[in-house]
Design brief:
Helix content: 40-55%
Radius of gyration: 23 Å
Largest sheet: 5 strands, mixed
Strand content: 5-15%
Number of helices: 17
Shape: globular
Number of domains: 3
Oligomer: single chain
Structural class: alpha/beta
Order of helices and strands: HHHHHHHHHEEEHEEHEHHHEEEHEEHEHE
């Protein structure tokens, strides 16, 4: 959802909906700027800091999300920079020295291999993560909101944690309000509202946990995908959810588009959940393969593109593409219909095995879940625990889960926790999950 859509929606939002930040209300900044020259200087500092954070974030994405690179807790890392180098670079950018460090260097001391001294922001982030784990959502949210005026000026993590808290609580208006401020603060596109399982609905929804059949495609989507699709369709009959990873696809054929379109229709039926990772990227790849007015070309890529746009809930884009389809083939296009139980996920490193989907909440009554994870571990290597629907983990349950994972890691199992929300990721990092598993927070 673009920023202009947010601005349009704000007409109907009450003034007390969400946190009343200064970017929205026009109140004076806490920076205490006294004159225009000082404002200009601070703007230059903010731009330099934002550029520095963007560079760090790119390095973070490379470090954490790309398959060849280590995730949190992995031993490999780039050579440490000298203190003089870090200080000089920080002075040039007029920003904090800690922002010059690579993400993984903030987590582990280079020489000793022991956890490094936590950055100055760690105590606040850890405290909020513990409060959230213990069910104190309101207090955790207020602390995050209060931190935006100071810590939030330079640290995106608190924004990401607040976005995840609003999604977990089903607070869409507050989420979209703060997304405007985030876009203004960091001069970037704001995240879109896309909760997989808010806490507000967790009790009413069926428990979707257990092995999630997963297939990764790419780089060419052609007839060769047929065996993978057939396996998914067969397993879908007994699985509460299935997952397709299509973000690595860089080229498509008409036959491949037709086969995937048919499979999507089958997989989203029967009340099961369908998760498509990289749907937005595939939509752009398919769009590049079609041409308006090329009537002799197959309709399959057009129809797959329309299906993907429905899955992404991009109604305006769907209608424009449907009009182009109508012009090209002189046929009535399909009507837009938002699909239930279908979710688009961000593209990440492809899974190497079927995932084990974790529930929305892990609390004290988690022994059956842990036993199911043990059974999953007997069949698969690596163990990929899907946290896309995981909103919150009780602190004591997190300790019990870590104990189980330590046993599995000691037996030689490789463990990955993927698509973790940033509140849960902060808790896992605090408790030492990085010692036994690779942690992959979801991306904003």
């Amino acid at each position: 959802m673009g920023i202009f859509s947010f601005l349009k929606k704000k007409k109907d939002v009450p003034v007390d909906s969400g946190p009343a930040t200064r970017l929205r209300t026009g109140e004076p900044s806490r920076l205490g700027l006294d004159n225009e020259a000082e404002r200009a200087r601070q703007r230059e500092i903010a731009r330099a800091t934002a550029a520095k954070i963007d560079a760090i974030e790119s390095a973070m994405a490379f470090d954490i999300f790309n398959p060849p690179e280590p995730a949190w807790g992995s031993p490999a890392r780039r050579p440490a920079r000298t203190e003089a180098q870090i200080g000089a670079a920080a002075r040039d950018a007029d920003t904090l020295p800690l922002l010059e460090l690579a993400t993984t260097e903030l987590l582990t001391d280079e020489a000793s291999g022991e956890p490094a001294a936590a950055p100055q922001v760690a105590p606040l982030i850890e405290e909020i993560a513990i409060l959230f784990a213990n069910g104190q959502l309101q207090l955790a949210g207020q602390m995050l909101v209060d931190s935006l005026a100071d810590l939030g000026l330079r640290e995106r993590a608190v924004w990401w944690m607040l976005f995840d808290l609003y999604q977990a609580g089903g607070q869409q208006d507050a989420f979209e309000n703060i997304a405007i401020d985030y876009a203004s603060r960091f001069e970037t596109s704001p995240p879109a509202w896309n909760p997989l399982n808010p806490l507000a609905q967790a009790g009413a929804e069926p428990a979707r946990t257990g092995i999630t059949p997963t297939e990764s495609f790419g780089p060419l989507l052609d007839a060769a995908i047929a065996p993978q699709l057939q396996r998914l369709c067969e397993l879908a009959a007994t699985s509460p959810a299935v997952r397709l990873e299509v973000g690595a696809v860089h080229a498509v054929t008409a036959d491949g588009c037709a086969r995937l379109l048919t499979a999507l229709t089958v997989l989203r039926g029967g009340g099961r959940e369908l998760i498509v990772a990289g749907a937005a990227e595939l939509a752009e790849t398919v769009r590049a393969s079609i041409a308006i007015g090329a009537r002799d070309a197959s309709e399959a890529p057009w129809l797959l593109l329309l299906e993907l746009l429905q899955l992404l809930n991009r109604e305006k884009d769907f209608e424009e593409t449907a009009m182009d389809y109508c012009v090209t083939y002189e046929l009535s296009p399909p009507s837009f219909e938002a699909h239930a139980n279908v979710a688009a996920a961000a593209v990440q490193a492809p899974s190497r095995s079927d995932r084990f989907m974790l529930p929305a909440v892990i609390d004290g009554a988690a022994a059956p879940l842990f036993d199911a994870i043990d059974a999953y571990a007997e069949q698969y290597q690596p163990l990929v625990l899907d946290c896309a629907r995981l909103a919150r983990v009780d602190y004591n349950a997190a300790a019990a889960l870590l104990k189980r994972l330590r046993v599995l890691a000691a037996s030689g199992k490789i463990i990955e926790l993927r698509d973790i929300n940033h509140l849960v990721a902060a808790l896992f990092r605090l408790m030492g999950y990085g010692e036994v598993a690779r942690l992959f927070p979801h991306k904003y």
